[in-house]
């Protein structure tokens, strides 16, 4: 090696393009990552981040372009090639075998010899060394199904390190983590950097980019729009680069003026489909003119809480709306009855619940409100023309694109799908709006708009119950925050008097006093 | 984005499937040393070359419209009703009872009563599997198949032990009275000065079947019930969100489905045989599955597919009569069409979808969509 030459980039992509049919997922992308750095790639959903990384990892073949690893032109046809080139990848959805131990998962596919026992022993030694070296604590004999997601992620990282990865790609790694777990992950990433590893971190969260990366690339609609040093940029600039226009990151809202209680919950208990109790006796009140935010890591009973309130699931206990008790099971406890009582519901999963993906936009606008007399022509037939006219109004008012009532729901982007649901529910002017994960998989521009609509409903004196796993969203949108853990409310806080750290502790089940 | 334009889905795929089935059938005919061109000519002449042929083609098509609609309605609720055969048998029982045990003054009133009886019996036969599915989760495919066997046994018992006339050796009811004779196409068209074969069985039931197509279309795409059926068919969780009761939709969709299958009996039992015999359904309940698949569960598609299968049935019968091609081979040809248009749908669909994706054909989807036979898992967003 020529001593005078500077070290080549660990990864260099030159002119990568990739199309899926008419969708140009990556367009002439060039990227250069210096060794021993953490490089962030940020972009809205569908910008092409995962596609680019899948090309680097050999899942897709690029239509055009070259990959250079450590200054060498490298052909990567499959993940074997990627591993041989020293690339490891931690996917958004972990690829672990649930009923295998940590150790078994780590050596899976890299057993190194026909006999399991000696290779297990060897792997155990290697694993212990790796754990020590990088501060990655895991119990090698724990079953995957028994450890938390944070730990599972560490197993994925160890899997890559075990295969001698020098370049580690993490695709949206924090989506499933509590803030504390995310911080822990970032500590690990910094440690890996110190040891000379190169890391690519993909995310759509600006805060994470600012926290850990050295350099950051922004992707928009398949193109790389900018690469900047993290120290020389700020969230506002990155957001603008992502969306292509100025966006308001903080929700602009006046202080709430809470009125009478609209929703009162007492001793509510809910079981999931398997009969496991997921909500274990909670009390909550939501007042007119306020947004109550429920914070918590996914899977701590928030979904079941929303489902009971929305009439999708039976429960036990007491729920009162405007002082009148609502039935919690049997007839009169379904979604129709809830809507009639004045509850609107933006569900957590718009694709499986809030929309029928095969239905036209206009059919979806009537969804759940298909009994509305305004939508009936006579006792027998629905008034489809009236529904379409209503749809056109909502498309206009909520700036839903494309502005085509005949398009199937599946052909709208995530943000516009969500706008259809939000338009349908908010335009009912309900006494109580239930909102679950309103901006999951929604682009920044649409997030801003949806937040504004929710605040406007609050300002009109309506009650809003917001469930979100995005702490930032809860902190900026809610007027009052209740933290849920393991089916119970761990405490209530006012957003101006708390921070992510305190909420994070509550979300992890530490009681308020200890925090 | 949709993988391909609607017209390709509803027109191109069935046509290509049909073409493939035809080519393969031709090869089979060649293989046994016969002339496929001559065979096709015999089929066309036999099924469409005369009003006699048309009369039979339309008669079979009428059966298939009813059973095809039955399968299609259930399909929209994502229920696979394999029990059309049994429901049609029970419909025949209803028709026979209505025609034999009540003296009707005029065929029109008799048709009305027999139709209602047929629908009630068919619906009742579908109700039990529907209930077992909705409340107990017993798979409707299994239960409806079992109910076909039970229906056959029940019919056997009724014909041998209860309804057989004294002294008759034939497991069949006696002939229905002349007053309930349904006008054939010959009788219907004569006043208009149109000549039609006297001996062909097509009858006024054809008009009922066409009306049923229109009504089912209105039900599925113009009524609230149809909206709920389709919503439930596409997404059960979605239905739960919207307050649509899965139990209610499962029951209603299956009752309508069973009623439509049962209604077939006004054609084959009341219109043609004019008495109830064993095996009067001749497998029409099963053909209905292929008809619904090929017709994309759309009533107009069902109408066209029923005509095609009517043609295949009548043409096939003529082929058996006028050529050296054995009867079994005709069944093979019919099975090939069913195989290609129904079961092997994806074989044609997938390459075509890829072709359209490659062409980058981005078209606005138009018209009404019918559900696909299988629940395709939706991709969760990140
Ligand atoms: N396997 C695929 N087939 C067709 N289209 C795809 C496929 N994978 C991704 N796309 C499309 O490519 C674009 C980029 O997707 P992706 O790389 O997953 O974005 P990101 O990870 O930035 O959210 C999107 O429009 C997506 O719909
Ligand atoms: Mg992605």
From TrEMBL, chain A:
<dbReference type="InterPro" id="IPR027417">
    <property type="entry name" value="P-loop_NTPase"/>
</dbReference>
<protein>
    <submittedName>
        <fullName>Simple sugar transport system ATP-binding protein</fullName>
    </submittedName>
</protein>
<dbReference type="InterPro" id="IPR003439">
    <property type="entry name" value="ABC_transporter-like_ATP-bd"/>
</dbReference>
<comment type="similarity">
    <text>Belongs to the ABC transporter superfamily.</text>
</comment>
<dbReference type="Pfam" id="PF00005">
    <property type="entry name" value="ABC_tran"/>
</dbReference>
<keyword id="KW-0472">Membrane</keyword>
<keyword id="KW-0067">ATP-binding</keyword>
<dbReference type="InterPro" id="IPR050107">
    <property type="entry name" value="ABC_carbohydrate_import_ATPase"/>
</dbReference>
<keyword id="KW-1003">Cell membrane</keyword>
<keyword id="KW-0677">Repeat</keyword>
<dbReference type="GO" id="GO:0016887">
    <property type="term" value="F:ATP hydrolysis activity"/>
</dbReference>
<dbReference type="GO" id="GO:0005524">
    <property type="term" value="F:ATP binding"/>
</dbReference>
<keyword id="KW-0762">Sugar transport</keyword>
<feature type="domain" description="ABC transporter">
    <location>
        <begin position="263"/>
        <end position="511"/>
    </location>
</feature>
<keyword id="KW-0813">Transport</keyword>
<dbReference type="InterPro" id="IPR003593">
    <property type="entry name" value="AAA+_ATPase"/>
</dbReference>
<dbReference type="InterPro" id="IPR017871">
    <property type="entry name" value="ABC_transporter-like_CS"/>
</dbReference>
<dbReference type="GO" id="GO:0005886">
    <property type="term" value="C:plasma membrane"/>
</dbReference>
<keyword id="KW-0547">Nucleotide-binding</keyword>
<feature type="domain" description="ABC transporter">
    <location>
        <begin position="11"/>
        <end position="246"/>
    </location>
</feature>
<keyword id="KW-1278">Translocase</keyword>
Automatic annotation (TrEMBL), chain B:
<feature type="transmembrane region" description="Helical">
    <location>
        <begin position="87"/>
        <end position="104"/>
    </location>
</feature>
<feature type="transmembrane region" description="Helical">
    <location>
        <begin position="12"/>
        <end position="33"/>
    </location>
</feature>
<feature type="transmembrane region" description="Helical">
    <location>
        <begin position="53"/>
        <end position="75"/>
    </location>
</feature>
<feature type="transmembrane region" description="Helical">
    <location>
        <begin position="110"/>
        <end position="128"/>
    </location>
</feature>
<dbReference type="GO" id="GO:0022857">
    <property type="term" value="F:transmembrane transporter activity"/>
</dbReference>
<dbReference type="GO" id="GO:0005886">
    <property type="term" value="C:plasma membrane"/>
</dbReference>
<feature type="transmembrane region" description="Helical">
    <location>
        <begin position="200"/>
        <end position="220"/>
    </location>
</feature>
<keyword id="KW-0812">Transmembrane</keyword>
<keyword id="KW-0472">Membrane</keyword>
<keyword id="KW-1133">Transmembrane helix</keyword>
<dbReference type="InterPro" id="IPR001851">
    <property type="entry name" value="ABC_transp_permease"/>
</dbReference>
<feature type="transmembrane region" description="Helical">
    <location>
        <begin position="249"/>
        <end position="270"/>
    </location>
</feature>
<dbReference type="Pfam" id="PF02653">
    <property type="entry name" value="BPD_transp_2"/>
</dbReference>
<feature type="transmembrane region" description="Helical">
    <location>
        <begin position="140"/>
        <end position="160"/>
    </location>
</feature>
<protein>
    <submittedName>
        <fullName>Nucleoside ABC transporter membrane protein</fullName>
    </submittedName>
</protein>
<keyword id="KW-1003">Cell membrane</keyword>
<feature type="transmembrane region" description="Helical">
    <location>
        <begin position="329"/>
        <end position="348"/>
    </location>
</feature>
<feature type="transmembrane region" description="Helical">
    <location>
        <begin position="302"/>
        <end position="323"/>
    </location>
</feature>
């Amino acid at each position: 090696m020529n001593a005078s030459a500077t070290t080549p980039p660990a990864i260099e992509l030159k002119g990568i393009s990739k199309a899926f049919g008419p969708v140009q997922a990556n367009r002439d992308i060039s990227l250069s990552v210096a060794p021993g750095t953490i490089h962030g790639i940020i972009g809205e959903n569908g910008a092409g981040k995962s596609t680019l990384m899948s090309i680097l990892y050999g899942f897709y073949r690029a239509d055009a372009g070259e990959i250079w690893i450590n200054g060498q032109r490298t052909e990567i046809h499959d993940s074997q090639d990627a591993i041989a080139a020293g690339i490891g990848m931690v996917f958004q959805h972990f690829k672990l075998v649930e009923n295998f131990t940590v150790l078994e998962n780590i050596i899976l596919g890299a057993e190194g010899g026909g006999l399991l026992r000696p290779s297990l022993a060897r792997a155990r030694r290697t694993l212990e060394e790796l754990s020590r070296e990088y501060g990655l604590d895991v119990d090698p004999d724990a079953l995957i199904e028994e450890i938390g997601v944070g730990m599972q992620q560490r197993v994925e990282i160890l899997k890559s390190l075990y295969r001698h990865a020098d370049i580690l790609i993490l695709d949206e790694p924090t989506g499933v983590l509590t803030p504390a777990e995310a911080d822990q992950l970032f500590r690990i990433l910094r440690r890996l950097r110190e040891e000379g590893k190169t890391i690519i971190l993909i995310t759509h969260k600006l805060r994470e980019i600012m926290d850990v990366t050295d350099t950051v690339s922004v992707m928009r609609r398949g193109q790389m729009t900018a690469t900047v040093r993290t120290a020389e940029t700020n969230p506002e600039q990155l957001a603008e680069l992502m969306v292509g226009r100025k966006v308001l990151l903080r929700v602009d809202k006046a202080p709430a003026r809470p009125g009478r209680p609209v929703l009162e919950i007492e001793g509510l208990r809910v079981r999931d489909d398997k009969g496991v109790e997921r909500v274990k006796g909670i009390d909550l009140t939501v007042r007119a003119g306020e947004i109550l935010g429920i914070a918590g890591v996914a899977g701590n009973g928030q979904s079941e809480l929303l489902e009971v309130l929305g009439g999708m699931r039976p429960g036990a206990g007491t729920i009162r709306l405007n002082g009148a008790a609502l039935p919690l099971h049997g007839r009169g406890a379904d979604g129709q009855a809830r809507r009639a009582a004045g509850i609107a519901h933006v569900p957590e999963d718009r694709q499986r619940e809030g929309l029928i993906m095969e239905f036209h936009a206009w059919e979806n606008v009537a969804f759940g409100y298909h009994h509305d007399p305004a939508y009936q022509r006579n006792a027998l037939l629905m008034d489809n023309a009236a529904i379409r006219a209503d749809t056109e109004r909502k498309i206009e008012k909520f700036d839903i694109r494309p502005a085509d009532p005949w398009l199937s729901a599946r052909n709208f982007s995530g943000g516009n799908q969500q706008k259809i649901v939000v338009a349908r529910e908010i335009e009912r002017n309900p006494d109580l709006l239930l909102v679950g994960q309103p901006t999951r998989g929604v682009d920044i521009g649409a997030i801003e708009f949806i937040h504004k609509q929710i605040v406007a409903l609050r300002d009109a004196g309506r009650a809003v119950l917001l469930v979100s796993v995005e702490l930032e969203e809860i902190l900026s949108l809610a007027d009052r925050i209740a933290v849920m853990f393991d089916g119970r409310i761990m405490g209530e806080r006012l957003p101006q008097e708390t921070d992510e750290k305190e909420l994070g502790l509550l979300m992890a089940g530490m009681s308020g006093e200890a925090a | 984005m949709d993988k391909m334009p609607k017209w390709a889905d509803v027109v191109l795929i069935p046509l290509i499937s049909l073409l493939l089935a035809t080519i393969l059938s031709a090869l089979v005919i060649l293989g046994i040393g016969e002339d496929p061109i001559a065979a096709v000519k015999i089929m066309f002449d036999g099924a469409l070359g005369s009003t006699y042929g048309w009369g039979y083609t339309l008669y079979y098509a009428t059966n298939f419209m009813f059973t095809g609609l039955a399968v299609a309605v259930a399909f929209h609720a994502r229920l696979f009703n394999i029990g059309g055969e049994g429901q049609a048998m029970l419909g025949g029982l209803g028709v026979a009872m209505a025609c034999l045990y009540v003296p009707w003054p005029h065929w029109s009133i008799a048709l009305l009563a027999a139709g209602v009886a047929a629908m009630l019996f068919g619906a009742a036969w579908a109700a039990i599997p529907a209930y077992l599915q909705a409340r107990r989760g017993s798979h409707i495919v299994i239960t409806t198949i079992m109910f076909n066997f039970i229906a056959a046994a029940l019919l056997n018992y009724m014909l041998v032990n209860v309804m057989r006339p004294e002294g008759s050796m034939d497991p069949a009811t006696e002939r229905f009275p002349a007053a309930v004779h349904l006008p054939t196409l010959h009788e219907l068209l004569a006043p208009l000065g149109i000549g039609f074969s006297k001996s062909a069985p097509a009858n006024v039931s054809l008009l009922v079947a066409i009306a049923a197509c229109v009504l089912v279309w209105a039900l599925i795409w113009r009524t609230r019930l149809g909206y709920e059926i389709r919503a439930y068919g596409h997404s059960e969780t979605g239905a739960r969100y919207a307050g649509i009761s899965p139990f209610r939709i499962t029951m209603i969709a299956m009752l309508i489905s069973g009623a439509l299958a049962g209604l077939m009996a006004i054609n084959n039992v009341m219109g043609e045989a004019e008495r109830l015999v064993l095996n009067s359904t001749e497998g029409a309940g099963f053909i209905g599955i292929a008809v619904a698949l090929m017709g994309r569960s759309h009533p107009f598609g069902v109408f066209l597919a029923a005509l095609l299968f009517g043609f295949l049935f009548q043409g096939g019968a003529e082929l058996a009569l006028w050529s050296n091609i054995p009867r079994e081979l005709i069944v093979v040809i019919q099975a090939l069409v069913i195989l290609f248009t129904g079961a092997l749908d994806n074989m044609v669909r997938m390459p075509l979808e890829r072709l359209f994706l490659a062409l980058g054909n981005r078209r606005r989807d138009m018209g009404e969509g019918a559900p696909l036979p299988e629940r395709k898992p939706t991709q969760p967003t990140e």
